[in-house]
Structure formats: structure tokens, C-alpha cells
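Q: How would the C-alpha cells look for this protein?
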Amino acid sequence: MQTVLVTGGAGFIGSHLVPLLAGRGNRVRVLDTLAPQIHGMLTGRELDWLASTPGVEFVRGSVTNEADLRTALDGITAVVHLSAETGTGQSMYEIDRYCRENVQGTALLMHLIANGAAPNVRRVVLASSRSVYGEGAYVVDTDDVTRITPSSRTAEALRASQWEPVCPATGAALRVIPTREDDRTAPASIYAATKLMQEDLVRIASESAGIGHTILRLQNVYGEGQSLNNPYTGILSIFSTRIRRGLELPIFEDGLESRDFVHVSDVAAAFLAAVEAETPANCVINVGSGVATPVIEIARALCRSFEAPENVRVTGQFRLGDIRHNVADIRRLVERLGHVPAVSLSEGLKRFATWVSRQPLPEDQLGRANEELARRKMMG
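A: Here is the predicted structure in C-alpha cell form.
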């Protein structure tokens, strides 16, 4: 049995992981600010599970506040660090806030651990992001051997509707392949840059302090409990609100950009495995389904899950900092953590739609968020 601190544990992934940890006999302490952008105004009973789950203690506070962190770390033997600001587009103009929360918060956490504030901590598990890769891995159509990670697409290319990356050396067409943990990292947004910095802070500080670490690079996580209030992240939650309101689903670019959608229960299971592994992995591990799905297909499938018309429109618009494709190579997930993703996309979407249908209908904020991005010249 361990005493586990889960930072940001009242959020989406935490709401699945914390009960799992407690159900396995671990004592769990949750540190969370309950930020309105994620949790709304907390007028309902969304967080009743925190009070009703045996073995769980809740501390309201921030990873950027030393006193809050010292309180949360007292008696802890393992840390799961979920706390982070997560909106890719928003990060491009809320630069200071994203760096303060993601980088400085992680730096303070590791500083306190390294300097004896939590002498019993034996491992740290970090929630990182597939965004650190930038574009995923590719090969040239005529060469299945040489792996290429292209640079971020330029604003000029996007304005010309040149959606697909090309070989930086020859301009040849590329074909996406599953991205491995040892492929090049090339963040294309401030959010991604902060996640990569988190990885370095956790890895270097853990190795220096002689404690174990595991870094989980998460693909597009979706499922029950996802914030329906945050218009800057979570494409399926954003689309679910518009479906319920009878609004069209606007699809950026040509709709063929693809993502690796992984259900939150599979993500929580990966974190549990990382916490309970007899020996810490001491490496980066991709967490995804290993399947690429075009955004237009996921939008249509979500409409079907709600038994609603497929009211989808490809807009040709784009956001600076967005990638074209990324799908995870999950062999290390299976080999190091023994976890094979169990929830298919069709099953996961049905579960998500059933849960969403029972929630209060949120305000549609997508238009406002896009207007803000356009005003700041981050969207075309």
C-alpha cells in the first residue's frame, strides 16, 4: 500500500484514477485548485465522488504555492503529477500563465521533493502529452526506412491550404506512421513546450534524487467526466455541446487531419500500472490506442452516438500550432506496463454520449474561443 499524491486529481483523468488507486488499498491525497475554466462554477454535485470515496483526502490548493505543496506532500510515498493548463491555442497568448502553472509548478514540486519535503517519495509519474512530438513520425512514400519528423507547418502553407507536411529535404509526399518514444521532439505550441520542460524537470530531478519516474505521453484522451465547460481543449466535449444544441460541427482544414483517441479508462489503467509497477519504468511511454482517426470521421461517429443528424461542415480554417497527424506506437506501453487498451472507439463514444446526455446542457463557447484566437491572429 502506498500514500499517493495526485496533483490536479479532481479533474478529468483524476476522477477515474483516484478511485482506482483507493480501490486498490492505497491512501490518496488530491491537490487541486478547482479552476473555473475546467470545473465551471461548481454549482452542482460534480465533485461528490471526492468526499464519498473511502481513503481519499482533498486539499484545495495550487502546485505553484509552496505552502500548499508542502501540506500536500506530507507523508507521501508516490506522486502522480496531472496538474497542468492544457489548451493548445490558448497557450499561444496566455504564455506566462501556462509557463507558471506547468513549468514553475513542476519545478517547485521537484524542488521540494529533492530538498527533503517528502523524504518517503520513491517515484513520480508525470502526465505528459503527444504534443511534444509536434508532427508525428512519417516516412517518404517511396522509402519505408528513413523516419522523418517534419517541422511545424508555416502560416503561409496553411493559408494556401497545403495541409500535409512534406519532406524537408526534397519536398516529397510523406506517409504518417506510428510515433515512437525515441522519435524527435519538436513542440509546435507553448503548451507543448511546457510539457516537454515538465518531462526534463521530472527526469533530471528524479535521477539526481535517486527516485524512480515514469513519463506518460498521452494521446487525445476522451470519455466520461471530461470538462464540458472548457472551450479550449477536448474536441469531443466541444462537439457534444453543439450536437445537443442542434448546431453544426465546424471541422478545421479539410477534415482529414487525424488523431489517436484513447478512452480515459485506459489512461487511468496506465497510470495505475505505473504507480504499482514493482520497478519504476524510468522512461517515457506513449499512451494511446495505436489507431489514427480523421477528425471528420470522429465528428460523424459522435453524431451517430447521440443519434443525431451528421451536421458537419469542413471550414478550411486552421489554428497555428495545430499538428496534422499523430498516432502512437504503443509497444512500450504493453511491454513495460503490461497494459493493452481495452475500450474501442465505438464503445467509448457510446459511453461518452450516454454520460453527456445526463449532464446539464452547457453554454456553447466555441464561437467565442475561436473569435479570441482570430483576434490574436492565431487562427486563419
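The chain is about 35% helix and 15% strand.

The chain has one domain: 3-375.

Upvote if useful.
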